[in-house]
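[step 3/7] inverse_fold.run input=structure_tokens len=248
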């Protein structure tokens, strides 16, 4: 009888009850999607940029002086670094190109001097302000599901043109070509709402963990005969009445 009751009660919780905090997050998520739609514009040109790997290039080596020291790099690799802005050397450091000179760093950097990561886009700051949160809903997967940050710039990024950072190496190069197209839509996310969503998501994860702990304890105590069936049901009723759990 106990096993049957516990199984039925567990099914009831899984199917019929959801954490109130999760429901609140889902609602705000829907609101944010509506706001994003209101801030979407069409006619954008989207390209991709990547970091070349020196090991992928086998052309002749050219000498490069960096801070008084001489290095040798593949000529084709150097040319690609001039286009992309950064490249990963065969010894693990990153070679950058800016203000008509090469320099080395342990990580590639965006225009804010933060590490260049997937989710970074280069924009024209006259059109999109720096550090904006942006989606490109009609871009190919998985890029259509990413919230981008406009943390980078480039001399060729002018007007309604966005450049998406796609990663390192030949696969990233393929992605850069795959994402390149005209007539994309871009949506600018309200920053205040975005931060609220992040905070609520953190809170909902915490509350869901606590809810699971409470429910697990109720079942455990019932299985151990520490509480009766009536007490178990009353405990769940209390969680619902306190809106810790919400019935669909």
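[step 3/7] decode complete -> sequence:
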């Amino acid at each position: 009888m106990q096993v049957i009751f516990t199984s039925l009660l567990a099914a009831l919780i899984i199917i019929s009850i959801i954490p109130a905090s999760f429901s609140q997050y889902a609602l705000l998520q829907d609101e944010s999607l509506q706001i994003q739609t209101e801030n979407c514009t069409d006619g954008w040109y989207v390209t991709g940029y990547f970091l070349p790997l020196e090991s992928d290039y086998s052309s002749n080596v050219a000498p490069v002086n960096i801070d008084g020291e001489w290095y040798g790099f593949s000529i084709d690799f150097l040319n690609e670094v001039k286009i992309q802005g950064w490249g990963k050397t065969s010894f693990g450091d990153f070679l950058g190109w800016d203000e008509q000179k090469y320099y080395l760093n342990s990580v590639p950097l965006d225009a804010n001097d933060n590490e260049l990561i997937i989710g970074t886009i280069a924009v024209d700051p006259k059109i999109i302000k720096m550090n904006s949160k942006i989606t490109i809903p009609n871009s190919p997967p998985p890029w259509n599901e990413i919230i981008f940050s406009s943390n980078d710039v480039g001399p060729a990024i002018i007007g309604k043109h966005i450049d998406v950072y796609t990663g390192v190496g030949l696969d990233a190069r393929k992605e850069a070509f795959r994402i390149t197209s005209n007539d994309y839509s871009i949506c600018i996310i309200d920053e205040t709402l975005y931060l609220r969503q992040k905070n609520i998501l953190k809170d909902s994860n915490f509350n869901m963990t606590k809810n699971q702990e409470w429910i697990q304890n109720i079942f455990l105590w019932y299985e151990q005969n520490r509480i009766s069936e009536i007490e178990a049901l009353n405990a769940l009723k209390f969680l619902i009445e306190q809106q810790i759990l919400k019935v669909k």
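[step 4/7] annotate
Confidence is low (pLDDT under 50) at residues 11-38, 204-208.
Residues 41-189 form a domain with the Barwin-like endoglucanases fold (CATH 2.40.40).
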